[in-house]
User: Fold these one by one.
Assistant:
Number 1:
Amino acid sequence: MVSIMSNAKPKVAFYWCASCGGCEESIVDLAEDILKVVAAVDIVFWPVALDFKKKDVEAMPDKSIAVSFINGGIRMSEQEEMAHLLRRKSQIVVAHGACAHLGGIPGLANFWNKSTIFRTVYHATASTDNPKGTEPQPKTSLDGYELTLPEFWDTVHPLDDIIDVDYYLPGCAPHRDLIINAVTAILEGKLPPKGSVLAPNKSCCDDCERNDSKPDKLQIKEIKRPHEVLLDPKTCFLAQGVICMGPATRGGCGERCINGNMPCRGCMGPTDQVYDQGAKFLSAFASILDANDEKDVERLVDSIVDPAGTFYRFSLPSSILKRKKLEAVK
Amino acid sequence: MTQRITIDPITRLEGHGKIEIFLDEHGNVERAILQVPELRGFEQFAIGRPVEEMPRITPRICGVCPTAHHMAATKAVDAVFHVEPTPTARKLRELIYNAFFMEDHTLHFFFLGGPDFVVGPQAPAAERNILGVIGKVGVEIGGRVIRIREDVREIMNYLCGKAIHPVCGLPGGVAKGLDEEHRLKFLETAKAAVEFAEFALQIFDDVVLKNKAYVEIVVGEAYKIKTYYMGMVNGRNQVEFYDGDLRVVDPDGREFAKFKPADYLEHIAEHVEPWTYVKFPFLKKVGWKGFVEGNDSGVYRVAPLARLNAADGMQTPRAQKHYERMYATLGGKPVHNTLAFHWARLIEALQAAERMVELLEDKDITNPDIRRIPTQTPTEGVGIVEAPRGVLIHHYKTDERGLITNANLIVATIGNAAAINMSIEKAAKAFIKGGQISEGLLNMAEMAFRPYDPCHGCGTHALPGNAPLIISIRGHRGELLRQLHR
């Protein structure tokens, strides 16, 4: 690997794609630590904070940026272009946050396609008043002036569908300790093997304060939705019959949702041993269902009202499923 | 020769806002528009999801204002299940919400809108950012800004799990309560927040109001458009963020409509244009007449100044004093001066901080009765809150199992989408003439949209600075005549 520790301060870039801005906020939430980061590196590109100079990035020698942190999934042509550009210019690319890592919540759009989304957003929604049936177009003319919009795709992709990714910084949004550890590891050149997820390789349950309340043999007779029960703040959610993605999810998030007395929804993605988070949860979950016969199993499984949207809440685009078959989308 | 100026800020939420300014053959502005080149389609992929999960899904619309989506969704889910939160749960939600408002609003002033004034509208771009503000007002204040933000966000982290993407809202209540130890701790933070908001208003006073040149800019025609205004009010027609009726006043300041959130479809519709991915809300009873001002145009505005214009006053005593002073200074209601959004924002931050103190002084906020389990069949519900950037509407319909069959979202920033276009065009026309385009003049034009704190600029909200721009000026054959970076 090319050394990133030269005499000059390492150059760092931040960029966003189909994301919400929460990953940017996670950097701002470093609060006073952000000043240490700013002191140690030379931020050459950060549209949120610094002059935007895409042309300047284009003018940089290839591999001259030590590391680019890219957040957001890829679902527009413009995002794809930027991802390729930054890959070319960077020694290391880090997929920053759940959307770049796994596709994230916007990846739930992969149950549909462009035309169904357009139909809903620009025609069917209750407040839309669109008698002429207008839809946004890649090219339009307004008073004789040509206007362009980037192309909207059928499918949301995690970053590594589009470019080669070196590391993954997981979470929605990533915990500040993970960000600081990642930056420190990069600065000190103490990086794990390429492809690593920069978080502990253990499950969310391993660190969970409620782990002790989990019975040795966990068994669920009845599945409850979070609003249907008073949630005990000390007891394992699964022991309360509430679906918690903890067993199939990587730890290192600080169990912040659980500290807020709500179950895990899996934003950290799976551990290293697991390829498909949803499938992993399903197999783990099946083993704890306390059913007497096949009918009982059916009843319990039926009481999971949205299995795909729950088990793949953050990971649909990076799962074995990737998306609903395009020809099956009506 | 026809020219085109592209201002491409590449800032966030539903995408990168991009301003196009078209010049005619004399080099004068003919048309200016803001394009939002991104869409994610939340209304589509909400379908099939259990409705109680929406407070955990929709915050991903915006990572800067996730609390607004979380709360609008939570209230919509209350309505879907026909359940009211317990009194203590409501207080906790209001506490979270006011903490969020206070933090978001003051951040905007110091990081985004403020630099234009504190450092100066025509100052070099490199200084027109938070660092420039600190240079002008002192390092100690910079530290204070960072600290108060962290302390207030700690309240949110404690009660919501995460400030970035809260998890606490459930139909009929909240997941987590407050104990006495934390009540006392957060009360100290709230008191500090009141002082901080007063201090921010003092800076506004010293830097803007005592500077004649700035006041002239604020009240100047370039930054004035006459529109309707919409805002949430409580039972006494005072500015309210969490729950109340929506009130609309006309460009003359007369009440035009007042309605329950559930009736929003009678009053609001959205227009579609082919050149941007956002829709343009308008007053249904007036109609969409294009990007024009006045009583006959259905264009309305939302967010801080709109809320103050649509209300009769503030809920809290200190904020009320500043409210009266603002209208006395700017010549009575309604105020149409877009730059007054900055002033109104700070007055709202003060109300939010005062409300935090009131809520935390009430010992009932530690009552453990924070959940009411829904018992009725879910159907349909509307949840509306005021986001810092304006009226935010979530509307869900479900089947009898509570799985979503229809969702409609009118996001706060787009409430101002038409007005932002009009404001940019008006300022551009005032400052760009005869092909004269200097960086300072472009910032004067850009200042027309910053008061709205557009959430396409959520990111900009974050660290040092302004919307970073690339400005390309092209001849009518598309050849590049000149390019400015800022």
Number 2:
Amino acid sequence: MAGENLLEIEDLSIGIKRGGRQVRIAEDVNLTVGVGERVGLVGESGAGKSMVLRAIAGLLPRGVEVLSGAIRYDGKNLLDLRPSQRLRLMGPEIAMVFQEPMTALNPLMRVGEQIAEASIRYKGMSRRAALARAVELMSYVGIPDPKTRATAFPHELSGGLRQRVMIAMAISLKPRLLLCDEPTTALDVTVQHQVLRLLEEMCDEVGAALLFVTHDLAVINQTCRRLAVMYAGHVIETGTTEQVLHDPRHPYTRGLLESAPDFDRPERLLAAIPGSAPNLADRQPGCAFAPRCRDAVESCFAGEPTLHATIDGRQTACFRADELFQKVNA
Amino acid sequence: MLQRLGFIPGRLLQAIPIVFGLTIIVFSLSKLIPGDAAVAMLGERAGPDALDALREKLGLDRPAIEQYFLYIGRLLRGDLGDSLMYHVPVIDVLPNALPVTLSLVLYAVLLALIISIPLAALAASRPNGVRDLVVRGYTLVAQGMPQMWVGIMLMLLLSLQFPLFPIGRYGSGLENIRNLFLPALTLAIALTPTLIRSLRQSMITVLEADYVATARSKGSAGFPLFRDHIVRNAILPTVSVVGVHLSYIVGGSIVVERVFNLPGIGQLMVQAILNRDFPLMQAVTLTVGLLVIVVGIVTDVVYSLLDPRVAAGRAKA
Amino acid sequence: MSVVSVIVRGKAPSKARPRTRQLRPWYQNPPLVAGLIVTGLLVLIAVFAPFIAPHDPLAQDLLNARQGPSPEHWFGTDSLGRDIASRLIWGAQVNLRIGFLAVLIPFVFGTIVGAIAGYFGGWFDIVIMRIVDIFYALPFYVIVIALVFALGSGEASIYLAIAMVSWTAYATIVRGEVIVAKQLDYVRAARLGGLPKWRILVRHIGPNVMSQVIVYAMSDVVMNILAVVTLGYLGLGITPPTPEWGSMIVEGQTFITTNWLMATIPGLAVVVASLGLSWLGDGLSDLLNPDRRK
């Protein structure tokens, strides 16, 4: 890993109060993002990935809080900072792109003004200058006819354009870390591709690191160099994209890959993972994936596996990783 | 922007049958009142011939439906009859009273907003917290306080005990800011429970909205966040609520004008009723009804101007 | 009922599905308890007025007029020497009785009209909604005052006047709830099962709609009490010498500089009454609609 890590998440646990009890929606999450690096965070809905992003941004919803752990940005633990200090990071250093552009944009404010907001606040630019910059940014992200479009309201734009607006907003202050919460999920497939390319270009130009949350493996494959897989609030595997997707080291990852259609081999039967994701409020002892795992043995139900290094230097949270996957590769 | 206002002609057309219904109700009211209108107008000791003549002139011996159309005809010609109390055409009496009531109502709405917005924000910032409970406690108590009593209490405290505001004076121009403060405050207090409840609810919804999270992710906070994102969006449903309650406010002004002895429409109405001045009473009722309808349309216009999502030609949200 | 409960899903109202939330027992429901206590006390005072009131509310004693509070007269006397405390107590009887009774006609009439309009729709619905619109244009007090004046003073005209105006709210609420309930799956199932429309309306939709209406009725009682008090203040409705809080307030206003209690106390009585009733309404709302809690 080149250079100091920009972002280090250490043993992060997030909980939500439900019915008087504390339910852990993310547990002992460990993750790093290097300067300018593009890292993906994959998992099903409800696996806790969005909450990790929100915890970094300090935008956890009411009732959800960080239980333990640290989030280090540039070496400083964000959780130790005063809210006002933390706030100053949002925009110039860390920015976020949300999933649902329709609800993520203020319906009553013109698009150009929303993009200009950050510039006015942080760069002290006059309104006119900030708006002019907003138009520049809009053309930068590929919005046609930006001058007119800047006066439009969000509902007057298509989904793809709205997402571009969100990206323009996010990069307006040239942040060093871009957090993306499923930014393409709500878009048409054709538009998805364009937006992804845009994100990559922007990151290259601005030199920003990317932490990309999604449930779509294909998207990760295209965009990210490294990835981490989450299941039921735990990170269960990490590695480079190529390694993990071609040579998984966790039964869950393997199951994911097997259930994805392969256009090169259309005759292959899709193998779904039996069962469904566990109810986080109802945690049983042992590995969270064990009930659905075809390679589970008795010890899998007893203790909870944590991320550890495998023989060839990757990380996985499975007791049987070495035997299961060494066998395959042997 | 002009195309957003395209729904206005439609609304006006919609309003016409309502106005007609209004006239029917007002007309029926006067028919309900016992006693002979001619006798009431000329007095008990008038001669039978004079009474008959008047009855014929007013068309009192014709069937009710005909009388109604006569009435409508007179209305459209601007003839509202003569006031029995003041012995001048009703048309002359109204224009003096209308501005008083209008300024009172507007002032009251302004004060109500000034009071309600911060309180609602306080309550919404932490629902079910202490501040929220206090604010909600206030609304509970406030909605049970009879308006005239609130007016009297305010009078007691801010005029009699501590001579800060006058009572019963209605001058002109800026002086009225002080003159009308107590009555406007009375009305405003009556409005606050509904307003606070509605604002609080919409603020809570807005605070949880995605676009607020977006704004905060850009580092927006404090007053700019509040002004640009929260208030703007939260106030929208409240505009509708105020519009609906406007008829209640106008009705409340009747009592308040009486308490503070202001020469407005409400005062006129009560006097007309107590003095059996039918023409005046009819005219005032009609005016008030029309006022409410107009305000309703204005509210719709305001709402559509504030919310860019309202498409042209769409009826009231 | 078994077929219906099998098909139940979606936002089915209380009786047809297991509650996802624990129902609070009535005694753990603070507004309900507070409301019951306050309202109960007031009702007791009103009912037992003849036994509680220290003096005859109508008895004049001109020599002792306009006295301040004393052991003999807890709140003093009014301009005719009548004991204010007794008038307050008897006034409770008047104001509360009218407040409660005035709800009945609008409740019944409005509910029936609203239910028919909501369930059967059609031209009836359109006509009714137009009429409601017209009534909305006229402020409550304007019509009530005019009507009470037209019909003459006295209790009966108050009931009539309020009835003529308040029914619209009930009709609107019921209509809205019925329209929503119509679309629910379990109602559709009942229709498919061949139940006649009337039966469905009364047995299936009815109970769930009624809980909303009852809660509204409580707030309507408060509004009626305020209306009676306002009418009394304006000199309409209940006429002297009958003790009524509103007319006591207007009388008190003239003596505001000498004995401010005269105007303040009756108003406080109104506030207490409305507080008790509002709590009761809130508590009932909690009880009957646990899933709609704020």
Number 3:
Amino acid sequence: MEVWRIDLQKQEFQKEPTRETWQHLGGRGLLARILLDEVDPTCEPLGPGNRLVFAPGLLVGHMLSSCDRISVGAKSPLTGGIKESNAGGRTGLHMTKLGIKALILEGISEPGSWWILHLSNQGARFEFAGELIGKGVYESARLLLDRYGEKAAIALIGPGGEMRLSSAGIQNLDKDRVPSRINARGGLGAVMGSKGLKAIVIDDSGGEKPPIANLPAFRAAQKEFNKALMEHPQTRIYADYGTAAMSRMSNGFGGLPTRNFSKGQFQGVETISGEYMRQLLLSRGGESETTHACMAGCTIRCSNVFGGDDGKSIVSPLEYETIGLLGSNLEISSLDTIARLNWEINDLGLDTIEVGAALGVAAEAGWMEFGNSERAMDLLQEIRRGSPLGRVLGNGAAITGRVFGVERVPVVKGQAMSAYEPRAIKGTGVTYATSPQGADHTAGLTIRAKIDHLDPEGQVALSRGVQINMAGYDTLGACSFAGFGFAASPLTIRDLLNARYNWNVGEDILQALGRDTIKLEREFNHRAGFTSAQDRLPEYMRREMLPPHNAVFDVPDEELDGIFDW
Amino acid sequence: MILTVHLHTILQKETPEGLQNRVEVNMPAGSTLGDLLASLEITQHPDSLLLAVNGRVADIDQVLRPGDQVNLMPAISGG
């Protein structure tokens, strides 16, 4: 596998052998190593010194269930620190078929020019993207598929990325060519936009699956992992209810973000629950699907297609984080409305978590009434128009709070929290505070743990363990839900890696990868100027009591500061 | 004593009125969460469930009190 390097300014392309220190890494871990090696941590994120890197995880390329994710990274314009965001879809699979270990995009195009980067076994070429500029993600993806064929993989930005908004992501086609698998967090779409790159099209024809050093051993480990995954009780729940099953669970713990993170329970929770959604979709039929795979080969199938009254798809997928941030957080209790807001944000090419949090802050500032879905949609149209108000919102919750003088802003390191209230789920609060990625549940969610989530004791140790595992899974290219399959067959990670690469790693390889990754990320942030002062939740969460438990975040600072002293 | 039990995902039961997501249960004083699971004929292994009483994680030995709000949640890892 080789590194493909693209210079946007010179429009040059070269393939390089993978450096020795990069060879045993993939996904998030490889991004951390590359960014530390090649990017000045003090650089301007939207300037020529930043690099945008795509890296499939170590296990990507074999249609191993839930393990074909693509990590994208850069210095984040939202957090000012290191950023990795991973997504499903087909981009990772196609990159590995071309033998790409990492795709490094450096420099910026001539201002005002927009390009499509086409990758194939013939190498890389640039084509004009002018006709796509200003168009939404869904229309752009369709035009690109018409032009390059239905088999292409595409990673593209929307109008939000073109405007370099800090909530902009990069969207990938799923297995059904829907461009909704988004490297959402941290403004990576703005970095891509800053480089004048509208889309990357990957034609893997003529490519080959990555080699497997010991195929029988790989297949044996794959079989064991698949069996563990299929037999795990969580698989059925995710298949039937999707991630939306979390709505009532979070509400049950008093940790469902409500009314701009000021309450932990929502009166309208039943109609935004996974249980309700399942019944609704089954009754509507048509294009609605209660279970759906975002990646070919996934056996969990936690995704869905949310159809309206007429059975036609409104959006796919509709996920818990979106439901939390655009639903309870805005006191909107209609899944149809949330689905329409979700489609609109996808089409703008933005992160639903960041935009939902920004709208919550805007509502507190008086720009909309909580529960007023029409006004929420109007505000999204402000973003589409690129009005000053829209650009404020599109730059995320922190900027929105700053501009409108709101103190209650649910962010860490400038990035919005996901749909778990950290005062009620304190281990996840520790993750939000201390992850080098900023507030992000995928860095280490603790709600599954059998611990009193309201008790500050034990939360740092819990978060540490989960953060290490998650950084490991992100380095493998594994979905976090593959994690319960791996947890039930823990030696399969070692066996898969040894069989794939002819390595001789031990059974603690997941944790070793995770620890190394976090260490590299923290070093990048340290060099960017971060201190322990950034490893904190917003001050109001230590002071304002959260109903119904009247909880505050009370994990001591000194414990937070010691979390990575392993 | 009367308890309110919130049923999640696969524990919700089909009834002629639709899915039952909440039930009021009358249990003898001194009953534990384990007794409640047995009375509701819940067969899932307790390890695969997250059990919460009044919003706090609890184990099957926890003794219940009148008016407790109980959440019985087949465990999942998040969204």
Number 4:
Amino acid sequence: MSDIVLESGLAVREGARPRRRHRLVRHSLLLAGRSLTKTRRNPGLLLDALFMPIIFLLLFVYLFGGAVSGSTQEYLQYIFPGVLVMTLLLVGMLSTGLSINTDVKKGVFDRFRSLPIGRSAPLVGNVLGDTIRYVVAAVVLFATGYLLGFRVETDPLSALAAAALATALGFSLGWINVLIGVLIKEEVIVQTVAFLGIFPLAFGTNMAVPTDTLPGWLQAWVKVNPVSDAVDASRGLLTGGPVAEPATMTLLWSAGFLVVFCPLAVYVYRRRS
Amino acid sequence: MSYAFQADGLVKRFGKTTALAGVELAARPGTVLGVLGPNGAGKTTAVRVLATLLRPDAGRAEVGGLDVVRDAAKVRELIGLTGQYASVDEDLTAVENLVLIGRLLDMSKAEAQARAADLLERFELTGDAGRRVSTYSGGMRRRLDLAASMIGRPTVIFLDEPTTGLDPGKREEAWRLIRSMTDGGGTVLLTTQYLEEADALADEITVIDRGTVIATGTPAELKRIAGGQTITARPRDPKRLVEVAAILNAVSGREAESLRRDVISVPVSGDGEHAFAEAVRRLDAAGIGVTELSLRLPSLDEVFFTLTGHRTEEEEAAA
């Protein structure tokens, strides 16, 4: 490519080199590295990932434990798998749209968009860089759970799988927030819309109480809510029970969200003025 | 004739606002094109179309003979962009910013680092290369921004108001660096609100207003349209204003007027420097001390007034 001369007589820039392979992957990873550096420089950005797990676990266990299970200890075993799913969703999704929105406004993305890189690379890079938040939140949650007395009843590998499954769902749902981040101009509104969208998903599940105690309309929602499948799978993986079906459903939903919202976000980002 | 970039009949609307209403721009390789206009004239929109960030609603644009819409990916191989808002990452250091861009341009790590070091040296940032950009002054940030657009040795560089917000000393420093950008044969499109800036840097100037081109020419041609330069004087003793006016009338052959209190101005056509030197000699001979004496280009306001019949302030207020 480097020695073609265009009709106008301009040679292609001398620095041009033969295209290397896997460019989208490489560019996305480079930009994920940038996102990680930014997080390292502003550790305050991780505060929610650090404290959300602790607060959620303490609140849910001690608020509802006595009423629902009669004992906080028993309830902890019941609710922990659900809190894992909910926390990872919230921690992952809330930040991604916001960081992209900030980038878009600061003009950094304009430069990225003027570079010969895949249109989706800056978005994918941001989302990948944010996976550190899932790791932090999961570690803190398991540590807090352990201190309070939660015990994994299966094996460490299954526990890891439970965290990975919740992360997969968070990662694919996160693209909804990426879409919101590139679609909406006001930072505050990005956060509000993200919150409003996530709450029914994250809380409207079988996490805290058995589904059959709920009114009919809510039961209907809880049953279709893909997060409930993730909670079921998480329970199976952490405290025993059926795993295959809810895990498959979770992965299918995740794939579905990814297939719909990732291209949509990239499309909107490309068309954005 | 071949152009490094060329735009024909560009139209871009945002809702009810027409940002570009048929703009023509072109620059020959190795030259600087200045795009001059007030806020809201459409300068940024034109740059964004040429830099493949926006699709025009009508018209076409080419960079290096490649269509900016159809061959956008290839155009991006040729261009460098410095946007109006600092387009570097504040949380990264200067080196990290430049190396990241180099690597996104498929340079190896070593190549990217070498290129970054070269540019930091050239843009006089070596001493601060390891500091986070958030600690930089406005001038340093701008220099880094200019360096960032040079990483891939682009053949066409777009600079959108590169000196807006800089104080005069820093502005001249930026001018020096921008001038050096064409050294390697690159072509620069520079937007600005300042006639002096276009005059200092551009080989050709295109003046746009309300999304249309209202004049194109070399700086000298434009100044001729706007009636040349102006001599302005402020006598130390305000009572001698009348004498000063007589001298200015004599050297310029035009009627001097006092637009500000105790200050008198006269437009000079043709060789402004000669008239100015003559004014200095005569003021000195008459023993009149001055606290202000200048020869300056017509301001953008004056060029605009001449070309459009309306003032730029009204434009800004209306925008």
